[in-house]
Amino acid sequence: MRKKRRQIDMPPSYVIEHLDEAIEKHWVRVHYQPIVRTISGQLCAMEGLARWDDPNWGFLTPPFFISILEQHNLIHKLDAFLIEEVCRNQARVRKAGLPSVPVSLNLSRLDFINCDIFAIVERAVRKYNVPRAVRPAVRRRGRQHGAALEELHHGLPAAGLLEGQSASLPRRQPEVPGLLRLRFRAGAPGKNG
């Protein structure tokens, strides 16, 4: 087997040219980071995170490939794949009768520009019959996103994605590019519990 090359030597065009192949061949995967209640030590949720383990280059760090995908308006492809995978995995867990917990995903603000992210979420949720709740946890950098955040805040209920959930945008968040956190709930379909 050939020695893997270092990410630092990788041309950004590699990420762009191999994204579809990486998704299709599962070089890109969802890794689940547990969220544990500190008092009880119980698992209460998980966060789905994108990881790319390339056969030629090895492990690509998320800041590296995500920034390239955002710069080239391709991040929606990755996020659509993650939504599909999380819903598929939640359905498998439920079908096996195993206990499950909510899973959160971070989506780029560019998903609302480059695709119909609401339709992608709705399609995956219906396809796998997964209960869901969308809770905006939009992190912003500076004030330039204020109008877009207001539009997002009012657009989520209008899109029918909140289904009885209250939504509020946090006023102060760490300096991170705009993200929307989706939470796919565990439990019986149609219940917001």
Question: Would you kindly provide a brief summary of this structure?
Answer:
The chain is α+β, with helices and mostly antiparallel strands and 193 residues long.
The name of the CATH superfamily reads EAL domain
Into which percent range does the helicity of residues fall?
Answer: 25-40%
By DSSP (H or I, 4+ residues per run), the number of helices equals 6
The CATH topology turns out to be: TIM Barrel
Run of helices and strands: HEEEHHEHHEHE
What does this structure look like?
This protein is of the alpha+beta class. The protein has a single domain, classed as Alpha-Beta Barrel (TIM Barrel). 38% of the residues lie in helices and 20% in strands. It contains six helices and six strands, in the order H-E-E-E-H-H-E-H-H-E-H-E. Strands 1, 2, 3, 4, 5 and 6 form a six-stranded mixed sheet that branches. Helix 3 runs parallel beside helix 5. 28% of the residues are buried.
